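Design review, sub-item: ligand-bound model
Attendees: FS, YL, KQ
YL presented the inputs for the pyridoxal-5'-phosphate complex:
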Amino acid sequence: MSSLLNIANPQKTSWQVNFARDLPPYLDPVITDWLLQSPEILTCLTDMYSSPLNIVWPHTVANNLKAMAALTASFGIKSKFYYGVKVNKSQALLQAAVSAGAGADVSSLQELHDAIRAGCHGVDLCATGPAKTRDFLKELILKGARIAVDSYQELRDIIELAQIWRGNFEKISLLLRLRPDANCSSRFGMLSDEIIIALHSLADNKHLELAGFHFHLSGYAPETRVSALLDTLPLITYARNLGLDPRIIDIGGGLPVQYVESQCYKTWLSSQKFADYRTGKIPACFYPYGGELNAEQWLTVFLESQNSVGDRISDILCKEGLTLCIEPGRSLVNQSAISVFRVCRVRPHTDDSSVIFVEGSSFSACETWFNSEFLIDPIHLRSSNHAQNHSPGKAWIAGHSCLDEDVITNRLISFVHLPQPGDLLVFVNTAGYQMDLLENQFHRHPLPTRLTALMNPSNKLMFTVDN
Ligand SMILES: *Cc1c(COP(=O)(O)O)cnc(C)c1O
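KQ shared the predicted structure:
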């Protein structure tokens, strides 16, 4: 009750919003305005719902989808986007993607049911992940979802299930997942000669329908997708010669997100030193946080790329009458969440650095568990109670558990004013595999609350719990 009153009558404490200077993140304008104009609301919400607190912003998903779809439309090709549901556990973000016209790419019974709850049905549901159980396959078949077949063994399961459940579906819509020669050591997908065997099974089976071909590659280079797409073209011809009618090339996910301005990121990377990390070690690899391309630019490079005789990918798709299907996860949730940690304690660590303990753990900001770093600076909400303390300071950030490894940043962050207990640290753009991939109830701490920020008709933000 008192917390609710606090929102109407913010406490006397005022809050200053400070950005560090090394790797300032890109930030959605709606979130920026809100944070700068009313930081006290965020501090009240953190008091009410405890730290860490995740806030998701569904409007960003609609913006991201609109921008990508406009780009593919500008090339005159048919396209369809499927939200990679695993990217975040929020139902509100899934709902936003489906409401904006995306399908859903699901990898478990639970994701399937949540996508249906969000209003996604039939071939707007697809399952492109590997190693699907028979229970999951059965449910996909009965719900009319499109299935990307990962292996010949999986196809045999589907053929058996089709026999058992015939009469309960029209035709099972299938994509065959290619393992391009360039990725021959991968455990996902089928090599061309296995695909050819699968095509013959499909041609003989009246329950199954070949919708097209699929691949999903790791890394973020458009060139590898261009080369994989060109690898599927002879398979399309082969399938057509068997009387099949493939209409889809599905290029999976991996469209990049820019978290930090590209030049700033390059400068940081080229000037970083061992001493910038409390470990004295620079991680071997990072997500390309400040890459040169955003998702739309990536799609442009991809669609403008040419085969060996100078035909553009976009023209090949048009000429062959193919629909381009894409399953973006991370790039559809660009800017879609912020994660707030309250500072618990600050201790000097070396002569010129401190360690900040926050209320929360690295399971809620998990890049260090992959031997890497989330290379953006948190925003510091500084209480006016500390106004007398102006000293700048470098600090790394640790969680509140007893694990040595519970470290949110090994990197020393250059704060304009060293944070103090009660201040907040706000990581932005955390929706993509950051905020909840590893979250758990270690030490029996409750799972962090996830709030949804919604704009009401009079353009005021409202916050509800996202279940
Ligand atoms: C995770 C995944 C995606 C989404 O990848 P992003 O990098 O988040 O775009 C798409 N397809 C498959 C098969 C995946 O496993």
